[in-house]
Design goal:
The complex is a heterodimer of chains A (255) and B (399). By secondary structure, chain A is an all-alpha fold. In chain A, helix 3 packs antiparallel against helix 4, helix 5 packs antiparallel against helix 6 and helix 6 packs antiparallel against helix 7. Chain A is flat, with a radius of gyration of 18 Å. With 399 residues, chain B is an alpha+beta fold. In chain B, 29% of the residues lie in helices and 39% in strands. Chain B has 7 helices and 18 strands. In chain B, strands 3, 8, 9, 10, 15 and 16 form a 6-stranded antiparallel beta sheet that branches. Chain B has a 4-stranded antiparallel beta sheet with strand order 1-18-17-2, with helices on one face. In chain B, strand 8 and strand 9 form a beta hairpin. In chain B, helix 2 packs across helix 3, helix 4 runs antiparallel to helix 5 and helix 5 packs antiparallel against helix 6. Chain B is elongated, with a radius of gyration of 35 Å. The two termini of chain B are 66 Å apart. The chains are: A mainly alpha (255), B alpha+beta (399). At the A-B interface, helix 6 and helix 7 of A face helix 1, strand 6, strand 9, strand 16 and helix 6 of B.
Chain lengths: 255, 399
């Protein structure tokens, strides 16, 4: 699939341009409107690329590390796009979120773009559910962080809600993975490194959500920065852990 | 603690070889972790104590929360919003207040949202309790079965040679192994076809694949992704009795379905007599090179073809055929249903908390006018926007 790299670089460029275009005080300015058009074009191209790859390979494209990064970047932008539709104040969060999605999308190109057949354990709809929930959680968590930290801070009041959705999707991802493990391996919890770090991430988000019940942890920059440690945990669990520890996830995925 | 359990080497997770390697190569660290109780976190008393503390903490927190929810429902706390006016009540009602309903003074909406966090924490308590129950009742062990082999619960078939806590009341026979490898490394079809019989039931057929276990009463049989060739023998004793013997050989995926030879050296003990076996299995054509010694004394050295017999003195071995074998995991796990019930309750509770926003709105007439009060959850932006809009509407002079 030699067309992948140029297409992916086009998407990366679109996200970077859109992110730069949104860095303007007036989200209704002509520049911001152009930025939105570029972002939507990138999103549509991105979705089409993932769809075509799925049809071409005949399997859900979330098996390899390349596919994982690509789908996660797509989820980030899609979550932001639909969230800003519902809450226009989140539009300016694209200033941070779109460059992050661009970096994740570009990072995908560091890995093999080949198509690898699924092992028997992966041939189930639970993979689709588990991986989709993971991507959605990552999308909401990135948006929560971007909404809290972006310079205009328009979306700051929504950070708590976004963190809650990230928590819900991450929790559902852990539960779905656990059920899948129970039918694939005969145990729903094996204290595998990724299982434990996923639970740790979930508990970190639970801690932050409890912390945010106090007004002083909900407002201002403190309320935004408090979401950084669980997000870092989430990123490490999703992308970093398999590089430093042996896990069942590394055995089956991320070739 | 979760991160520690997933990061530090845990004796329950390591294979015996890996455990020995860890204890030898990192002796000082392993010893310190042992002393600190960190080499087996799950199942340790202090970890159970932490879980109990979590349960107590949540129960106490829920009692406090229940009180707060009740006070919210009854309007016994300070309202977040309040607006007073003189004269009759204006035509435009406060947000989320319908003056046409029977209760035209106080209305509470989003009541399911009041129970969301309580249900969520109750679900977590169910998960923790199910974990305790499961820890006391579960069983899981691996067994390798060859095509044609019958299994009815013999403990020596299990990797750990330990019987399950409850009798395995079923009889299973692996009829066929469906194994194909694509391009020398990717698994194609992978499935074991069984005949099985549970207590009092007729013989049935079923297949077991990864993600599709076979339920056998309280037990379940799962297929693992390891397989190979097995040499099937009939072991003939001097008294005329006989028993089946399967010797398994691991096969790389790349070699599956191609001409292949595999070596194995093993001490095998039958009828209390240990013998040193050195074996080479060839699949094309099927043959078995066997060299057997007893305390350095050669008993047999030769090649067997299907149907040929090796006389070892203490017993004879008739080489019968080569069949595939597969690895299965037999489990008894009664904690699964309550555990997943806990997951569902937890997620449902949190979903209720996210989707339903409890809003209590009062609109009363007073001696000289009216007062509107509202109780909402912190961060209820939707209500705030609607309340501000209502306020602006009231402040506008009448046309």
């Amino acid at each position: 699939m030699s067309w992948l790299s140029p297409l992916q670089w086009t998407i990366v460029t679109a996200y970077l341009l859109a992110g730069a275009g949104l860095a303007h005080r007036d989200s209704g300015s002509q520049r911001a409107q152009w930025a939105m058009r570029v972002a939507v074009s990138g999103l549509l191209l991105h979705a089409a690329m993932v769809l075509v790859r799925g049809v071409h390979s005949g399997q859900i494209p979330i098996v390899t590390r390349y596919e994982d990064f690509t789908v996660d970047a797509l989820a980030m932008v899609a979550v932001w796009f639909f969230a800003q539709w519902r809450w226009p104040s989140l539009r300016s969060a694209g200033v941070l979120l779109l460059p992050v999605a661009a970096v994740v999308s570009a990072a995908a190109l560091l890995y093999s773009q080949g198509i690898f057949p699924m092992t028997p354990a992966l041939r189930t709809n639970w993979l689709v559910i588990h991986a989709s929930l993971n991507s959605l959680a990552l999308g909401f968590a990135t948006l929560a962080l971007a909404a809290g930290l972006q310079p205009q801070r328009n979306g700051a009041p929504l950070v708590g809600r976004l963190l809650s959705w990230a928590f819900l999707f991450w929790g559902a991802m852990v539960a779905a993975g656990s059920y899948w493990a129970s039918i694939a391996w005969g145990r729903f919890w094996g204290w595998d490194p990724i299982e434990c770090w996923s639970l740790g991430t979930l508990l970190a988000y639970a801690f932050v959500l409890h912390l945010r019940m106090r007004p002083r942890w909900r407002e201002g920059l403190r309320g935004a920065w408090v979401a950084v440690p669980p997000f870092a945990l989430m990123l490490f669990t999703t992308y970093g852990l398999v590089f430093v520890m042996r896990s069942v996830h590394g055995r089956y995925l991320f070739q | 603690m979760c991160l520690a359990a997933g990061t530090l080497p845990q004796s329950a997770r390591l294979s015996p070889e890996a455990q020995t390697g860890w204890d030898t190569e990192w002796a000082a660290t392993a010893s310190w972790l042992d002393r600190l109780g960190l080499s087996q976190i799950v199942g340790s008393t202090w970890f159970a104590g932490l879980c109990v503390a979590l349960l107590v903490n949540m129960a106490a927190g829920m009692l406090v929360l229940l009180g707060r929810k009740r006070a919210f429902y009854r309007g016994e706390t300070s309202p977040q919003y309040e607006l007073r006016g003189h004269g009759p009540r204006p035509a435009a009602p406060p947000p989320f207040f319908d003056p046409r309903t029977a209760d035209a003074v106080c209305q509470v909406r989003g009541i399911p949202g009041l129970f969301g966090s309580i249900l969520f924490h109750f679900g977590i308590a169910v998960i923790v309790l199910a974990g305790f129950w499961r820890g006391a009742a579960d069983f899981s062990d691996y067994l390798e079965l060859s095509v044609g082999e019958v299994f009815s619960g013999r403990p020596d078939k299990f990797q750990r040679h330990q019987p399950p806590p409850r009798p395995f009341q079923a009889r299973i026979r692996l009829d066929r192994a469906e194994i194909t490898v694509r391009d020398g490394k990717y698994m194609g079809a992978f499935r074991g076809h069984f005949s099985y019989q549970t207590a009092g039931a007729p013989v049935r057929q079923a297949s077991v694949a990864v993600n599709h276990p076979l339920r056998l009463g309280d037990f379940a049989l799962y297929l693992k992704e390891s397989f190979g060739y097995s040499a099937r023998f009939e072991r003939l004793r001097a008294d005329g009795s006989s028993a089946q013997l399967y010797i398994h050989f691991d096969v790389d995926r790349a070699a599956w379905g191609k001409p292949w030879s595999g070596k194995k050296a093993q001490m095998l003990r039958f009828d209390g007599i240990p013998l040193d076996y050195r074996m080479v299995l060839h699949n094309t054509p099927p043959s078995f090179d066997l060299r057997v010694e007893q305390e350095g004394r050669l008993l047999f050295n030769g090649r067997l073809r299907p149907g040929e017999v090796a006389d070892l003195g203490v017993y004879k071995l008739r080489f019968q055929e080569i069949t595939p074998w597969m690895t299965f995991n037999l489990t008894l796990d009664r904690g699964v249903a309550p555990m997943f019930a806990g997951f569902i309750i937890t997620l449902l509770g949190f979903l209720l908390h996210l989707l339903f926003w409890p809003r209590r709105v009062e609109w009363r007439t007073t001696g000289d006018g009216w007062v509107a009060r509202a109780w909402v959850r912190p961060g209820d932006l939707h209500f705030e926007q609607r309340w501000r809009a209502w306020q602006r509407q009231l402040e506008q002079p009448a046309a």
